[in-house]
Design a protein that fits this description.
The chain has 260 residues and is an alpha+beta fold. It has helices at 103-117, 124-167, 175-181, 186-197, 201-219, 224-230, 236-247, 251-258; strands at 2-12, 17-20, 27-32, 36-40, 43-47, 51-55, 61-65, 71-79, 98-99. It has a 5-stranded antiparallel sheet with strand order 1-8-3-6-9. Strands 2-7-4-5 form a 4-stranded antiparallel sheet, with no helix packed on it.
């Protein structure tokens, strides 16, 4: 592990701006204690405080203060002596902001690294490596926790959609409208739905309507055409075809066999 430079709790004036089109020549870890604007993959984004960004060697670095605000951060410029040392990065993604909860602890590690870097301590290189390993391990934990939280929220949102289609199967729902409701792409929504429930959204919607129709056929005196409308179908022929395909009986025959 080679530490080229390190800084703890640096505050920059409102006109602070970094523009390195070829990067800094090494790896750069930034701990943001205030928000700042970063140009990542050609798009400028406001990255909030309590975020970390690991820049890969050679990645362009463009970031600046929020107008009329100072920018405070910790940073480490570093490199590796061999490929095996890169294992400490724990597969943390490069050039992407990661939100962290325990910025205080990470900042403390940067402070200790900075102190060791400018010292003549006998074991300073070992100590620095230990702190760097700890930093990336904790960031990896934070990233994993964030991913789990996102997955939990996604699963909860999909379960909410499924409850809706079974509670109100007659509502007009499309893949486009439902994926938009969840702020997901259509392909991602369909993949996530089938992965979670083992059935496609379209087939599950059909099932919800067929189950509703079966209940109405057995418990009401409504005719099959009225029931098809109440189940969200615009065409009785389409309803009858789907019902027969899924149940094995036409709506009238199902009623005859199951009517109390």
């Amino acid at each position: 592990m080679i530490i080229n430079n390190a800084g703890f709790n640096f505050s920059h004036d409102v006109d602070f701006y970094v523009e390195r089109k070829n990067g800094s020549g090494d790896y750069l870890l930034l701990l943001l204690k205030t928000g700042a604007y970063f140009n990542l993959n050609g798009r400028e984004r406001l990255i909030p405080e309590n975020s970390v960004i690991l820049f890969k060697k050679g990645t362009p670095q463009y970031y600046r203060c929020i107008p009329k605000h100072i920018f405070t951060n910790d940073w480490i410029h570093f490199d590796f002596e061999n490929e095996s040392e890169k294992e400490i990065l724990c597969n943390i993604p490069f050039d992407k902001p990661i939100k962290v909860n325990d910025m205080h602890f990470l900042s403390f590690c940067i402070k200790m690294i900075s102190s060791e870097f400018y010292s003549n301590n006998k074991n300073k290189n070992k100590n620095i490596l230990s702190y760097m390993t700890l930093i990336f391990s904790k960031i990896d934990e934070e990233k994993s926790a964030e991913n789990k939280m996102k997955a939990d929220k996604k699963n909860e949102a999909l379960s909410m959609i499924r409850r809706k289609i079974y509670e109100k199967p007659y509502e007009n729902r499309t893949i486009k409208d439902t994926s938009h409701e969840l702020r997901m792409s259509e392909s991602l929504f369909q993949h996530a739905y089938k992965e979670q429930f083992g059935i496609s959204f379209v087939n599950d919607l059909i099932n919800s309507r067929i189950e509703y129709a079966k209940m109405l056929l057995v418990n009401t005196n409504l005719n099959a055409n009225e029931i098809s409308v109440m189940c969200g179908y615009k065409s009785y022929v389409h309803f009858s075809r789907q019902f027969t395909k899924n149940v094995g009986l036409s709506p009238p025959n199902y009623r005859m066999q199951n009517k109390l």
